[in-house]
Structure to design on (385 residues):
């Protein structure tokens, strides 16, 4: 069976503790933890040697020292983590076109289109691990599957220094025995409730026996949770440089399926983003529209402009078309977002002289009086959801 999508997930093993050991190799093999001093401090990360004593992250440091009296306790070294993160970003950017760093030590890559270059996913996985180790000295566990959730659960199951490929068609069988808490959206509270009812594994979520107990617990989300439990997961890998650099999104007070109001929201975002582009002397080569539906499923669609642009009236027809493609009839959406992507320095001569003057004047008015005067009314600012 071919790969409809191929997603890799990489997660550095005990990142903070491992980084400290790379910096001070004499600590290798010793029980090392990063955290605050006892009596009030908490462990942030523990090496595998420390874990063998039962030391865990989020444990009070005092408890950790009681379990492991020879524990080497280190203070967090954020510049070091940042530096390692940047070097790993360099590696993934060199290897892959589409990378999403979801945290300082975790990333997703969509390798679907690399099949011809890397026909064997296991060898691609080893390539990723080796490249990160060569660059930073850090061990990274890698999982791969047809979706992000299964790839991550595979990596979690293969730690430390592991590599686990879940081929297409075997996602549900792999997930079946995994604990419920491995699934995103099942936090400690929900996990506890499910445990009380009698559920233990991801497969239990699919068992019709529990239908009546699960329905009130998950409501409308049940369908989505059950899809994830079978490894059905279309969540895209969203390049972080692009999504973080210039994007706006908002959660609506009430879910909406009205094309006109979604267009109004995106038009407002585009006006603001285009102005930011001009202020930075940048132009966007493409645009990404993001929608989150009432079941929290996120879909995105990207489209390229015929040339890099930074004047919103020129960009709008493409954004509008992208939104129309993405919307499903009858669906209700809780969040809409817009990102301008593939940013490049604005080519000089993007506009003729008269038009540049008019745009400059408009931007000056906005700078003096705020964006409200230029038709951003009714659109809320970016939120952090
Ligand atoms: Mg990690």
């Amino acid at each position: 069976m071919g790969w409809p999508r191929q997603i890799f997930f990489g997660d550095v093993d005990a990142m903070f503790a491992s980084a400290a050991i790379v910096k001070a190799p004499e600590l290798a093999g010793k029980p090392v933890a990063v955290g605050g001093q006892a009596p009030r401090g908490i462990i942030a990360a523990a090496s595998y040697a420390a874990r063998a004593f039962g030391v865990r992250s989020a444990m009070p440091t005092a408890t950790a020292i009681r379990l492991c009296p020879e524990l080497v306790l280190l203070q967090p070294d954020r510049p070091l983590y940042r530096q390692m993160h940047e070097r790993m970003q360099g590696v993934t950017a060199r290897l892959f076109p589409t990378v999403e760093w979801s945290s300082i030590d975790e990333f997703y890559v969509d390798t679907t289109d690399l099949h011809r270059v890397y026909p064997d996913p296991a060898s691609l996985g080893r390539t990723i691990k080796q490249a990160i180790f060569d660059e930073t000295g850090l061990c990274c566990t890698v999982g791969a599957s047809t979706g992000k959730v299964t790839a991550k659960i595979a990596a979690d199951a293969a730690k430390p220094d592991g590599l686990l490929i879940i081929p297409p068609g075997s996602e549900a069988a792999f997930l079946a025995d995994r604990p419920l808490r491995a699934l995103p959206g099942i936090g400690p509270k929900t996990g506890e409730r499910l445990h009380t009812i009698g559920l233990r594994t991801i497969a239990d979520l699919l068992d019709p026996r529990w239908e009546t107990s699960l329905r009130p617990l998950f409501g409308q989300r049940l369908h989505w949770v059950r899809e994830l439990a079978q490894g059905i997961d279309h969540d895209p890998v969203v390049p972080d440089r692009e999504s973080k650099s210039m994007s706006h999104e908002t959660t609506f007070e009430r879910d909406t399926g009205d094309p006109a109001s979604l267009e109004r929201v995106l038009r407002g975002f585009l006006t603001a983003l285009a102005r930011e582009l001009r202020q930075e002397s940048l132009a966007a080569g493409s645009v990404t529209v993001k929608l989150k539906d009432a079941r929290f499923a996120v879909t995105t669609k990207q489209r390229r402009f015929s040339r890099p642009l930074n004047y919103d009236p020129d960009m709008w027809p493409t954004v509008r078309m992208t939104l129309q493609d993405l919307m499903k009839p009858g669906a209700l959406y809780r969040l809409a977002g817009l990102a301008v992507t593939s940013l490049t320095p604005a080519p000089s001569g993007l506009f003729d002289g008269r038009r540049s003057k008019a745009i400059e004047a408009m931007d000056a008015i906005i700078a003096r009086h705020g964006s409200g005067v230029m038709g951003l009314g009714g659109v809320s600012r970016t939120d952090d959801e």
